[in-house]
Amino acid sequence: MGRERREFKRPTFKREINQLCIIATEGQKTEIKYFYRLKNEYSLPRNRIYIEILPKLTPMSSPTSVLNMLNEFEKDYILREGDELWMVIDRDKQSWTSATISQVARQCYQKNYFLALSNPAFEVWLLLHLKDLTEYTADEIEELFQNRRISKHRTRLERELITICGSYNKNNPNLDHYFPYIRVAVQRGENLIKEPNERWPNYLGTHVCKLVRRILDQT
After folding, report:
1. Residue range 54-80: average pLDDT?
2. Which residue from 52, 159, 161, 174 has the least number of CB within 10 angstroms?
3. For residue 168, what are the contacts with CB-CB under 8 A and spacing of at least 6?
4. What is the pTM of this model?
5. How do the domains of the chain map onto residue ranges?
6. C-alpha to C-alpha distance for 120 and 143, rounded to whole angstroms
7. Other beta carbons less than 10 A from residue 203's beta carbon
8. SS3 call for 162
9. Helix 156-165 and helix 123-130, axial crossing angle in degrees, nearest 10
10. What is the H or E stretch that residue 26 is in?
11. How far apart are CA 46 and CA 163, in angstroms?
12. Which residues contact 174 (CB under 8 A, 6 or more apart)?
């Protein structure tokens, strides 16, 4: 016998007003804090969209585990027209093959989930709040894209954020550095997209801008 699905209910959620924007992320620190800040600032009772960030089901970090978070939510709750389920992951060339990412992207398409992939990491989305990638040389773009570790604890993108902001704590990022420029970041991210229907960027870029654009346009 199948699981009985129920209506989504929260104290500030009103089905007659709000559409659901469900976000499942691979990251457990930076991304979670970023989207909770986004929720606190833009998911208010008077707005048309209600943001819910899903808790991780397991400590595992993989595209498949994030996909399963959305699958479990879809099994539990009745969704309405206009509700959206978003998967936020990194390309992470060191861990996930192109075949793995392609398979996940295909499953998202089949299930009408939205995929917001950052290539190579979520930090490229944070960087877009602060600088336009056109400000970098081709060699610098390649360095950021490869995102190699340049010290024991820092990648190239993380070091770039430190250079600009003076600090970057992946476990507890100072989001005040970024949120004043969130609309600028969306525009910069959209300018990088090479094909309107691409499922994920094969270049230095991010589709997180699509998710954030969706939220900003509903507030």
Report:
1. 87
2. 174
3. 158, 161, 162
4. 0.93
5. 19-217
6. 11
7. 12
8. helix
9. 30
10. none
11. 39
12. 165, 167
Return all residues near 216 (Cβ < 8 A) that are at least 6 apart. Answer: 42, 182, 183, 186
HSE-CB of 137 using CA atoms within 13 angstroms: 3
The pLDDT, as a whole number, for residue 96 is 72
Dist. CA 132–CA 145, nearest whole Å: 14
Task: Find, among 79, 75, 87, the residue nearest to 15 by Cα.
Answer: 79
CB 121 within 8 A of CB 93: no
Residue 118, beta-bridge partner list = 90, 206
186 Cβ neighbours under 8 A, 6+ residues apart: 209, 212, 213, 216
Q: Please give the pLDDT value at position 188.
A: 98
Q: Reply yes or no: is the peptide bond before residue 120 cis, omega within 30 of 0.
A: yes
Q: What is the CATH number of domain 19-217?
A: 3.40.50
Both tokens of residue 201?
A: 């960027």
Place of tokens 């004043």: 180
C-alpha–C-alpha distance, residues 127 and 34, integer Å: 13
Residues 60-69 have pLDDT tens digits of: 678 888 999 9
- What mean pLDDT do residues 182-206 have? 95
Amino acid at 22: I
Nearest to 205 by CA among 130, 133, 105: 133
The answer to whether 173 and 126 are in contact (CB under 8 A) is yes
Q: Return left, alpha or beta for 188; rule: phi > 0 is left, psi -120 to 50 is alpha, else beta.
A: alpha
Q: Residue 51 is encoded by which pair of tokens?
A: 């943001």
